[in-house]
Amino acid sequence: MVGIDGYEATLKILLIGNSNVGKSSLLLRFTEDTFLPQDEVAATIGVDFKVQDMMFEGKKYKLTIWDTAGQERFRTLTSSYYRGAQGVILVYDVSNRETFDQLDNWFSELGTYCTNRDVVKMIVGNKVDKEGQRVISRKEAEAYARKSHTLFLECSAKTRYGVKEAFEELVRKILETPSLWQKRSLPNNNISVTRQTDFKPDEEASDNYRLRRARADNAVCLHQFSTWLEINIDLICIVPLRYFENNAY
């Protein structure tokens, strides 16, 4: 069922992997069809994200794509962003053996923090444009993906090769798993709230009356929000403040 915003569903996708594998470049290429040289791409601080519309079989979906920092010092911050993710792309650099070897650790973290058991996982080997420097063969990566029961694709954020296809394949697999994206709504008859109504008519013009009435109305709103939050907690996305290492906002 299409929501009031015109979208069939909102899907949350994470990009994880070591630093400098090109996660931010993949995100920028997919959402803005832009590529920046390595020396112009700043390391992600904590978590960044972008929103992208995608049409699939005549229906419109909203993708919220989260780009997580690969540095260990941000690991405690980024772990909370696994909550509610329907798809995760694990990125490595085909010209860097260490980034591939670290995939085991990223799978372990994913298993620890992800709240959706059916989350769709995809391994993406980036930077295939550096073919002369490749140290991870496609055959080796495919074997690892089969062992991990994970989707696999190679791409290049620099040349566009495979980038769109990676996100489309991930979304297709998510949509084939309705439990990951079916909308949940709050039944109106599940909320029962009693308002404070013992105000005397002659008090209605007083400041004290208005204050007590405001408190009563706020209590109703808070109860409704708390009930909705309990039902939809996995759909919540915390939007990070953009900050820098020098604490300048």
Structure, explained:
Keywords: GTP-binding, Hydrolase, Lipoprotein, Nucleotide-binding, Prenylation, Protein transport, Transport. Belongs to the small GTPase superfamily. Rab family. This protein is α/β, with parallel strands linked by helices and 249 residues long. It folds into two domains: 9-182, P-loop containing nucleotide triphosphate hydrolases (Rossmann fold, 3-Layer(aba) Sandwich); 188-233, no CATH class. 32% of the residues lie in helices and 18% in strands. It has seven helices and six strands; from the N terminus they run E-H-E-E-H-E-H-H-E-H-E-H-H. It has helices at residues 23-32, 75-78, 97-101, 103-113, 138-147, 163-175, 207-232; strands at 9-16, 47-56, 59-68, 87-93, 120-126, 151-154. It has a six-stranded mixed beta sheet with strand order 2-3-1-4-5-6, with helices on both faces. Strand 5, helix 5 (138-147) and strand 6 (151-154) form a beta-alpha-beta unit. Residues 184-199 and 241-249 have low confidence and may be disordered.
Output the CATH class name of the largest domain: Alpha Beta
Order of helices and strands: EHEEHEHHEHEHH
Number of helices: 7
Q: Name the structural class.
A: alpha/beta
Number of domains: 2
CATH superfamily of the largest domain: P-loop containing nucleotide triphosphate hydrolases
Query: Which second-level CATH architecture of the largest domain applies?
Result: 3-Layer(aba) Sandwich
Which fold name is given in CATH as the topology of the largest domain?
Rossmann fold
Averaged pLDDT: 77
End-to-end distance? 40 Å
